[in-house]
Amino acid sequence: MIRNTFRLASRRDWDRLKRDVKPIYAAPNEAAARAALDDLTDSWGARYPAIIRLWTNAWAEFIPFLDYDVEIRKILCSTNAIESLNARYRRAVKARGHFPTEQAAMKCLYLVTRSLDPTGKGQARWTMRWKPALNAFATTFADRWPAAETY
């Protein structure tokens, strides 16, 4: 949504538009997000009606995003970390070709994930990027995250 918003706007308006769009996706609940969308409509609706239509048409799909914790939202908004991890997974799978069992494939992906923090000591880079999000994921999805019960 954010990326598409800026595709529909002139580059000279990006800084001001960024300040007006952020309250929508950073809102604590749906009512606050709706109020921020109304403000966006008031200030940008005449100049960029396509942006307002974009947000309005996708509103039903956007609302569940607001139910997540702030840490999870950061991971979802900025896909850089996810894309980086997926690239590492693709590289590892491509290098090995095929796997004899599903367990072998899962082990390979596990080892790739562990290589992000090879010492296991939670270095600053690893901690800053993933530890808050991992804690939020473990809390939010405890029923689907078996390791969360052992921590």
From TrEMBL:
Transmembrane segments: none annotated. It holds the Pfam family Transposase_mut. InterPro entries: Transposase_mutator (IPR001207). It comes from the Bacteria. Keywords: DNA recombination, DNA-binding, Transposable element, Transposition. Required for the transposition of the insertion element. Belongs to the transposase mutator family. This is Mutator family transposase. It comes from Microlunatus ginsengisoli.
